[in-house]
Design a protein that fits this description.
870 residues, Glutaredoxin, five-stranded mixed sheet, 33 helices, 26 strands, 37% helix
Length: 870
């Protein structure tokens, strides 16, 4: 018998049920004498004859690289087989890759997650034969491998389409219409409740967060990200991606070559958000123009530029003179910008460029000046407002340095702090310096960092571990991703200082698999430091040893909790445990373990370069230093910001962020992700301070800050977060597992107009019970969004009980109507995806309510604003 249970094996003589992801179902009677003929598109054969009853679970179209597909014979598990298309014939699945993977990663149970990730990357899902093979040649049991594969959201037990479409449903994407994007994709691909189209080309999946919150709503197809989408753009996005595949991918962005002599720099951010907005294409265009003209400059990639609302952002830094910034640069404008600042090298090149400019002016109708159109200045009021209150510590040198250029990091003071700690300070002195700085953990709870380090140091064990928690699972947060992508050496330096202080010689980065660029850059930085001899048996020539490695998370939000993270590293389901003992006393493999998050480590080097007093001078009495926030949602100027503690929420939203859009009103800020709360605009003068935020029903969290306006429904927001935490609950404790489910049932009733008179009191009572009795932080804080919205927006809940959604967001409580402002232009009828608006030119249109899906398309496209929501 196979190790994966059969949920739908048919009885003999009955048709096999259709497998949702297969475009080629077997529909004949299920008898041993039958033959299944499988059509093979593009193979040059009419089909493959397979004896014994069965059905096709995938197709060669799913696996174009290797032509691998499984054939499962339902009802006859002893005959189950996995086939590979070879010269038009089905052969056994090649399991050589599984053997090589096990040989590389190990045979012990703790290797299970890495093995599964490698298998899925190779086969694009987890074939049963591959899982069975793992169990045959390792110490991993069938129960363990299935337990892990079904716990973590990253893993797939059935085939998928050739391309994966990931629709982000993070907080910022949710409030900006992720649900409408999802609906539009499903309609366009004709999914009809399934996840893969009939051609096996696309599989659509929801993801919690892609970490590009300032570009919301966001969709990622394979590794290509599209931001700021509307439902109407879905066909265009699919066509663009397929065209991109047919015509080949653009050349990968490479670090600039080192010039023989000093040269001007053209800097462009190539973080995930920047690339999603087109910075990669601009980077390529700059390189092409420089190569063609021989201009005396070098194109240089940098990390996050902070001003995500202005990307692609290009900075020209001449050898003498002031730098110049150009925002939202298009590849077509690169030539004009470069040639404005640099003359082509050589007479012939200059003549050719002059001729090109003359022809462009003659043959095109471009009248706008790209220089004037894209140029911005740090003295411009919007730029000043965005940058003015910020203080760069964790994000020092933002937009200036190449993330993986070790020599450049050294020129900016890199590793000076570690060298001081190795040569001048004892471990105890390091810890005292951190205590004196007042640094508190930036992962959410705000525990004093120095005290945590001291406890690990004092633990009476010889073997100790240090872990960087980069499993940033909060939807609406991307601070850790940016820091890992942009400043990998800084995070490593802070981690090395901490390791020296606590006596750890082995460290692990635990990073979300959804952040592939962050994973690559950390691994590259570790490799370069190891090659230079600064990691390993002698850190920077000292007698201190430190080895670092990277492990990727597998899509479980609960693994952000430190004991669940440790369980994951040990190869188990990520389930939290009761504390004490705390990880500082008994952590990974029951050894003392220090766990801090990315931002905490990134602040440490600054403390030892500038002194503890310098950090302690920033912030409030109880919250020292700075805090990095991901500013997103309904705000004009979103981005990655770092501000001193004590700055108010209003200053962040209205000064740095520029407030909400014209015609809208600032309603609330969601702080702290699913564990946080909604702070109303009336309390926006609350300072960014650990204790102050708790007093108003929120928490600092990891730093997600999503702005909401008057079009956002607070019942919908509470429902969204509770659905997320309920889905992400590990299920270990009853209060979290059942309590959040009961709370969600009540919110579902309220949001759909079926609420009952006693629902609000019951909801509040359940929330307080779950918050007080759950085992881990996820369960204890899961009710926060519900309690904070009940506290400040109870009137909206009461309106829903009366069948009204004041914000016009809850679909079951609203309908669309076309007023007499309609001119009969038929735009709405043409764009309606379900044909709910009859085509009646020059006549006031009407909406057939029984067909309407409330997709909002008609309201968006109407030129006269004749469509209203009631």
């Amino acid at each position: 018998m196979g190790i994966i249970p059969r949920l739908d094996a048919p009885e003999e003589g009955r048709p096999a049920p259709r497998f949702p992801a297969s475009p080629y179902p077997f529909q004949g009677p299920c008898r041993p004498s039958d033959t299944l003929t499988v059509p093979v598109p593009g193979s040059g054969t009419a089909g493959i004859a397979v004896r014994l009853p069965g059905r096709l679970l995938g197709s060669p179209a799913h696996f174009p690289e290797r032509g691998v597909f499984p054939v499962g014979f339902l009802g006859y598990p002893e005959w189950d087989a996995w086939g590979e298309l070879v010269d038009g014939r089905v052969t056994d699945l090649d399991l050589t890759f599984v053997d090589r993977t096990v040989e590389r990663l190990g045979r012990r149970p703790e290797a299970v997650i890495g093995i599964l990730q490698a298998i899925q990357e190779h086969y694009r899902y987890l074939p049963q034969a591959a899982l069975e093979r793992v169990c045959q040649i390792t110490e991993i049991t069938p129960a363990t491998i299935i337990g892990v594969a079904t716990f973590y959201g990253q893993f797939r037990l059935r085939p998928v389409g050739r391309h994966i479409i990931s629709v982000c449903h993070g907080t910022a994407c949710h409030v900006k219409g992720a649900g409408l994007i999802q609906d539009a994709l499903e309609r366009r691909l004709g999914l009809n409740g399934e996840d893969t189209d009939r051609d096996g080309l696309f599989t659509v999946q929801k993801v919690a967060c892609l970490g590009c919150c300032t570009l919301a709503p966001v969709v990622q197809i394979d590794q290509v990200t599209y931001g700021r989408l509307t439902p109407q753009q879905v066909p265009e996005v699919l066509a663009d991606f397929l065209d991109h595949q047919r015509n080949g991918q653009a050349a990968a962005a490479r670090p600039a070559a080192r010039p023989d002599r000093p040269a001007a720099e053209i800097r462009i951010g190539l973080g995930s958000c920047c690339v999603a907005q087109g910075s990669g294409k601009v980077h390529q265009a700059i390189g092409e123009v420089l190569a063609e003209t021989g201009a005396p400059a070098v194109v240089k990639r940098v990390g996050c530029v902070g001003m995500c609302h202005q990307t692609p952002l290009v900075e020209i830094v001449p050898l003498d003179g002031s730098p110049r910034l150009f925002a939202k640069v298009d590849p077509d404008d690169v030539r004009a910008i470069v040639l404005k600042h640099f003359k082509p090298r050589g007479l012939w090149r200059r003549i050719r460029q002059a001729a090109n400019r003359w022809l462009d002016a003659l043959l095109t109708d471009e009248t706008g000046d790209p220089i004037a159109r894209h140029a911005i200045d740090v003295r411009d009021p919007p730029v000043c407002a965005f940058l003015g209150r910020q203080k760069r510590i964790a994000t020092e040198s933002c937009g200036e340095i190449d993330p993986t250029d070790l020599d450049e990091y050294l020129r900016h003071g890199g590793f000076a702090a570690l060298r001081r700690c190795l040569n001048e300070l004892t471990p105890e002195a390091i810890i005292e310096e951190v205590k004196a700085s007042g640094l508190r953990g930036r992962g959410g709870a705000g525990f004093p960092t120095g005290i945590k380090w001291a406890r690990v140091r004092a633990a009476p064990r010889e073997r100790k571990f240090i872990i960087c928690n980069g499993d940033e699972g909060d939807p609406g947060a991307f601070m850790d991703r940016m820091l890992l992508e942009s400043f990998p050496y800084r995070v490593i330096e802070g981690m090395a200082i901490a390791a020296k202080a606590v006596g750890a010689e082995q460290g692990i980065f635990y990073i979300r698999a959804e952040y592939p660029l962050a994973v690559r850059r950390i691994r590259e930085a570790i490799q370069r430091l190891t090659e230079r001899g600064w990691l390993g048996d002698s850190v920077m020539g000292s007698d201190f040893r430190l080895r670092l490695e990277v492990r990727e998370g597998a899509g479980a939000f609960v693994c952000g909790e430190e004991t669940a993270l440790l369980a994951s590293l040990e190869g188990r389901r990520g389930m939290p445990r009761l504390r004490p003992p705390f990880p500082a006393e008994s952590g990974l493999w029951n050894e003392p373990t220090l766990v801090n998050n990315v931002e905490t480590y990134s602040l440490v080097p600054w403390i030892f370069r500038h002194g503890a007093a310098a950090l302690a001078a920033l912030g409030t009495e109880t919250s020292k230093g700075t805090k990095v926030f991901a500013l997103a949602g309904k705000v004009r100027r979103g981005g990655l910001i770092e501000v001193p503690m004590g700055v108010t929420i209003r200053q962040i939203v209205e000064e740095i962020g520029g407030g909400v859009a014209e015609g809208r009103s600032f309603k609330a800020v969601q702080v702290g992700g699913p564990s946080g709360g909604c702070v109303p605009a009336e309390l926006a003068d609350t300072p960014v301070d650990f204790e102050a935020l708790v007093e108003v029903g929120a928490i600092m969290g990891s730093g997600g800050l999503v702005v909401l306006d008057d079009t956002d429904c607070m019942v919908d927001i509470a429902r969204y977060f509770l659905r997320f935490t309920q889905e992400q609950s590990c299920g270990k404790c009853t209060f979290c597992r059942i309590g959040t489910r009961r709370m969600l049932d009540i919110l579902d009733r309220i949001a759909t107009g079926q609420g009952r008179p006693g629902d609000l009191d019951e909801l509040e009572q359940l929330a307080r019970t779950v918050g007080s009795a759950s085992i881990c932080g996820l369960g204890r804080t899961a009710p926060n969004p519900v309690l904070s919205t009940l506290r400040y927006f109870r009137h909206e809940y009461e309106a829903h009980l009366q069948g009204r959604c004041p914000a016009g967001r809850c679909k079951e409580l609203i309908h669309y109507r076309i007023t007499d402002q309609c001119i009969g232009c038929t735009l709405c009828a043409q764009q309606c995806p379900v044909n709910a608006i009859p085509m009646t030119p020059y006549v006031q249109h009407r909406i057939e309510q029984e067909k309407c899906t409330r997709c909002d398309t008609c309201r968006v496209v109407c030129p006269r604003r004749a469509v209203v929501v009631e």
